[in-house]
Amino acid sequence: MAQPVGTILFAPQPVVGLQYCCPYPVDVAILKKVMHLSDGNFVVTDNNGNLIFKVKGALLTLHDRRVLIDASGNPVLTLRHKIMTAHSRWQAFRGESSDMRDLIFTAKTSAVIQLKTKLEVFLANNRNEQVGDFKVKGSWFDRSCVIYAGESSNIVAQMHEKTSIQSVQLGKDQFMVMVYPNIDYAFIVALIVILDEINGGD
Questions:
Q1: Which CATH class, in words, describes the domain spanning 21-198?
Q2: From 1's CA, which of 27, 70, 98, 179 has a CA 20 to 30 Å away?
């Protein structure tokens, strides 16, 4: 398959885990439920409608927390909003941990106030945070964004909104995300959930 302009063929790039890296493009649908039901705030499916992940929120906690759960019900990672920071900052931890030893990555807005979506992502071993390992650019208002590797023009995933009469009637947002070959799709899903929270959530 021809690679889109601005990308290169990578070796597998596991962030959450190697099992989430496929040698071919992966299309996922992220369905946000506006009316929060007991089965999760978000449901993530593949092209055939098979469940991949759910995202559940933890209410009444000091920190906003979201837990990414796989199709078998196992917690994959926990997203935690770090309060008392100038920039909106989220941390992702392995499983249901919030221990810094289990930190996978940190994502923060590049400016305190921003009109366009811009998110910088730092992997756990990038402690000085001088240069991001990934960046997200786009317009959340248009439900369109592109995720790049580092400061390069190499695209690792793209998101756009998909609307249908049914989704409007049921009060749901659906984001379609194309994850490029060898990119960790669990990591990409986590970034989209963080973006939604930063940009107003509900």
A1: mainly beta
A2: 70
Q: How far is CA 151 from CA 5, 56, 67, in A?
A: 16, 32, 28
Nearest-angstrom CA–CA distance, 71 and 73: 5
Residue 111 is given by DSSP the state S
This prediction has a pTM of 0.86
**CB atoms inside a 10 Å sphere around CB 76:** 21
User: Token digits for 10?
Assistant: 């990578």
Alpha carbon 64 to chain centroid, angstroms: 16
Q: Which amino acid belongs to residue 198? A: I
Spatial CA neighbour of 69 closest among 23, 25, 90, 38: 38
Strands (DSSP E) contained in 83-170 are: 89-94, 103-109, 117-123, 134-139, 144-149, 155-161
Report CA 31 to chain centroid distance, whole Å.
Answer: 13
Closest CA to 29 of 135, 188, 146: 188
Low-confidence ranges of the chain (pLDDT < 50): 1, 37-38, 60, 62, 165-171, 202
Tokens of 173: 């947002």
Q: How far is CA 63 from the centre of its chain?
A: 18
Rounded CA gap, 79 and 196, in Å? 12
Please report, for the chain, the start and end positions of each structural domain, with discontinuous segments joined by +.
21-198
- The tens digit of pLDDT for each residue in 21-80 reads 999 999 999 888 765 544 558 899 998 889 999 998 765 454 578 999 999 999 999 999
